[in-house]
Amino acid sequence: MQQMIFKRFERVWHWLQALIVFIMLATGFEIHGSFSLMGFEQAVDLHIILAWTLIGLWIFAMFWHLTTGEWKHYTPSTVDKIMAMLNYYSIGIFKGGDKPFHKTRAEKHNPLQRLAYLGLELLIIPALWLSGLFYLFYSAWSNLGWGLDLGMVAFVHIAAAFLMIAFIIVHLYLAFTTSEVKAMITGYGEVET
Amino acid sequence: MRLYLMLVAALWLPASVSAEPVAALAQHGTTVAGSQTVSKSTADHSKFEALQGPFQTGPEVTKACLSCHTEAAKQLHQTKHWRWEALHPETGQTLGKRTMTNSFCGAIASNYPRCTSCHIGYGWKDATFDFSSEANVDCLVCHDTTQNYKKFPTGAGHPTYEPKEFPPNSGKIWQPADLANVAQQVGKTSRQTCGACHFYGGGGDAVKHGDLDSSMTNPDKSLDVHLGKDGLNFACSTCHMGNAHDVKGSRYAIVAKDTHGIDVPGRDDGSRATCESCHSAMPHQGGINNKLNDHTDKIACQTCHIPEFARGGKATKTWWDWSTAGQKTPDGKPIVKKDANGNVVYDTQKGDFEWAANVVPVYAWYAGETRFTQLDEKIDPSQVVALNTFSGSYDDPNARIWPFKVMRGKQPYDKGNSQLVVTHLFGKDDSAYWKSFDWGKSITAGMQEVGADYSGEYDFVETTMHWPLTHMIAPADQALDCESCHSRDGRMQNLSGFYMPGRGDFPLLDKLGWLLVLATLAGVLLHGIGRVVLGKNRS
Q: Mean pLDDT, to the nearest integer, of B160-174?
């Protein structure tokens, strides 16, 4: 049956974040020198504005996840459940087999999603944020003799940005193979009761 | 778009404060209501009995000056302007024109009367010059306001006291100045007086520095925002402030990074010779980004604010090849060739030249400590010999990226000893190169003059010399923009050892990263095709 899976704040958060991430990737790779689009300084300015906007959005999101208990959707499942999902996506899906997991109100993400989003939120995004803030404020610490330099910070930032692109590609593909896109727009999706 | 950015930025970033110095300079007299204009100086030198003249020579004028300014000559005697010698505080090298060799006219030893036409004294015609003589200090060359006082080019620092031709056989007659008139109108130093020597270094207008030439005598502010007569109209001494005649801002010991910030009386050294001493290290108005202020730790102000040098309409010399000197016409006449712009490109006396105007500087990490290759040092003639070298790198907290004019050329050296040489160029004797065009005789005489060993065998070696740039500061709107450096093939392309945004640094990471992206794309594509194909088969 159709039920509300993604609440209004979560949808706003998701799509705003998606928009910001796309523009940050574009401006970020322009700053790195991968291509020339809007001009270096304009790219830097937009990147900075979006970075602060995203941080602001995340503060709200963290508050929301904590107070609503929605954070529980991101705790990892057991290994056998994850293996079952992997097995489905690598073999079962081609044979027309049934998904080993179905959404419920209590578990809106399948075991693989839980793991993927947890990895995104605990590895890729913090790596981008931390390195990004160090990057932004490098003048404040670069002469303090920490043995850290802008090159290392930029390396982490760029490497994490590449991982982000890879994540987005897989995320988009999987989202379009299921009814996730519609659910993330309307809020409603098929759940097992 | 821009407006939107500013609005959003205002939400996140605190407003930043700009510290732009405001200059309101009264150039001449001041007036009080109801009073007439009075001179800014407390003395009218034309009323002084000692200056009524007539004066036959420069030293006579100096004696008159010293009758009131009793300590002035003693002060001058302590300065580089007088001694042409400086002990480098860090390297311990004894530097200065008195002993150094460069790639322009070589060295002053054995060529004194010609070179010392820019000495601040009178009569340094050979090594026996009396540096303790007070009467031999030339007050007028710096304090003249009439523009009638000129040192004669071959007069060992004296002006001419009778009508005299120079250059020889040119028909150009130099008239003696009315020394009493000049003396009665002395005043502060000016772009004109400083420039009389400093704009003509290396043997002619614009030759040596690239950021100092006669276009700086009366520049507009687009050429130099500080000196521009339509702008702040500074004198050289506004920044190169002197105390007891000791002028600040020597090239021999540059402050590559002034961490003092704005100099405050009582706290700092009172020097105005760095940009920061007026502007601070955070002079830019911050916007959404504050990156310009962030840059001042690693980038010298001059790097962005001198977009090009030799911008005043005069080309500067970039190449001087002494090895081709001495060629004459079949009937034995000297040759002078000029290019379309009137710059001499060949001169029998001096060899081949190249010139350049509106030049993009060469950039290098520079911590201010420069070491000069001196006469007694071994050189490696199989390589291009650097006449000066300096420390500095990204990792050096005292270093910043500075702009330089790089002078290149070929000059004679002692092949047997692998050392630079002194060449005797100027003089009426047969060993002077400009008389006999015989390098062997010239070098023998030059080396004898300084008491240096010469193997008797010479050749020519290619040399380079880095000249840090700090003048011809353009107005802010003509400073470099981000893309000048932050782009592929930007101005910092040759500086390595650090990450710089915009250059596409980390090429290996880029390759691996895009490979990951492609592999992921290929993966989902194959997965999708597999599902469609197998799905059809099933149905």
A: 93
User: Min CA distance, A172 vs chain B (Å)?
Assistant: 10
Please tell me the predicted confidence (pLDDT) of residue A77. 77
Q: B 315-344 residues with CB below 8 A of A? A: none
CB-CB under 8 Å, B501 with A33:
yes
How far apart CA B249 and CA B199 sit, in angstroms, is 16
Lowest mean pLDDT across A62-66, B186-190, B222-226: A62-66
Picking from A48, A91, A99 by the largest number of B CB atoms within 10 A of its own CB, the best residue to mutate is A48
Q: Are B139 and B72 spatial neighbours (Cβ–Cβ below 8 Å)?
A: yes
State the number of CA atoms in the 13 A half-sphere of B196 facing the CB.
25
Task: Give the closest of A46, A94, A139 to B294, CB-based.
Answer: A139
Q: A44 to chain B: which residues are within 8 Å by CB? A: 288-289, 291, 482
Domain count, chain A: 1
> How many Å apart are CA B136 and CA B95, to the nearest integer?
23
Convert the pLDDT of each residue in A111-148 to its tens digit. 778 788 888 888 999 999 999 999 999 888 877 778 78
Chain mean pLDDT for chain A: 87
3-state helix, strand, coil in chain A (%, to 5): 75, 5, 25
CB atoms within 10 A of CB B433: 27
With 0-12 CB in 10 A as exposed, 13-18 as middle and 19+ as buried, what is B158? Answer: buried
Name B239's Cβ contacts closer than 8 Å, sequence gap at least 6. B226, B249, B272, B273, B278
Instruction: For residue B196, give the DSSP letter.
Output: H
Q: Which long-range contacts (CB under 8 A, 24 or more apart) does B38-45 make?
A: B41/B187, B45/B183, B45/B184, B45/B185, B45/B186
CATH number of the domain residue A79 falls in? 1.20.950.20
CB contact under 8 A, B501 and A31: yes
Q: Is B44 on the interface with A (CB under 8 A)?
A: no
Q: Does A159 touch chain B (CB under 8 A)?
A: yes
Handedness of CA A129, A135, A139, A144 (dihedral sign): positive
- Report yes or no: B435 at the A interface, CB cutoff 8 Å: no
Range of the domain at A185: 2-190
The structure's pTM equals: 0.89
Q: How far apart are CA B489 and CA A18, in angstroms?
A: 33
Which of A110-119, B19-28, B487-496 has the least mean pLDDT? Answer: B19-28
> b/e for A37-63, b at 16 or more Cβ within 10 A?
eeebbbbbbbbbbbbbbbeebeeebee
pLDDT tens digit sequence for A8-48 = 988 999 999 999 999 999 999 999 999 999 999 999 999 99
